[in-house]
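ugh ok fine here u go
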Amino acid sequence: MTTLADLAELLRAPAALSVPGDVVAGAAAAGALGPRTPALAGASVLLYWAGMAANDWADRRLDAVERPERPIPSGRVTPTAALGLAAGLTAAGVGLAAVVGGRRAAALAVPLAASIWGYDLLAKNTAAGPAVMAACRGLDVLLGASDGRLVRALPSAATVAAHTWTVTALSRREVSGADATLPMRTLAGTAMVAASAAVAVPGRAGIAAALPAVLAGWYAARYGAAQVEVVRDPSAGKVRAAVGAGITGLPALQGALTARGGAGLLGLAVAAAAPLGRRLARKVSPT
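structure:
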């Protein structure tokens, strides 16, 4: 009998706290924050959960060897149920985006969904995997910008995509461990991502000018420290911890981008999901 706890583990439920901030950051950058933003964030979460279910369905045979405790290989969730859940969540996410945001949102939600499934079924174990996953997150940011000036959200989308590349590159070594050069490369990427998010907007002063840098620094300190540990000890356990830090620390980066878009208080609210995600990750793994 499948329980809600089993489904939460399948979907990596706490990791969804890292998702709404994509949409909010994109909307802030594009000048599109409004009543549609929460619904678009909800559509984004549905698509993210669809990707998690599809990921475990695609990996069910590999997980039977490497992670037999996962919901599918342990028998707590059937492969058919996981695939059906992934398909249903995909349809719900794309449908919600289309209903709320119209053609412009649908034009981003459809390729986002295709990229998610493409990663899970085709790209994950190839050299293109990190780039495809980065594209998923970049499209997610643009989904939030779909009701505004899309081009203004491109820098934020690129920043989140670059962060996602570092997390995905590390995640490919969660079971085997890594060599020291990989975390050194991802650490350099994290530094560039944080610097990009911290860039002050001309014409602002005081707290409004400093907040993006403060939040970007918080992001870099948490995620960067975990990667430094991998440089010192590139074992599988340290890699998994760094991946978890990258996932749960993303809201701080999204908060910095939201604040840079002119919504300081909302940026703080987005960043507040980071410590909450870390707390929940102790109960349900986000990786």
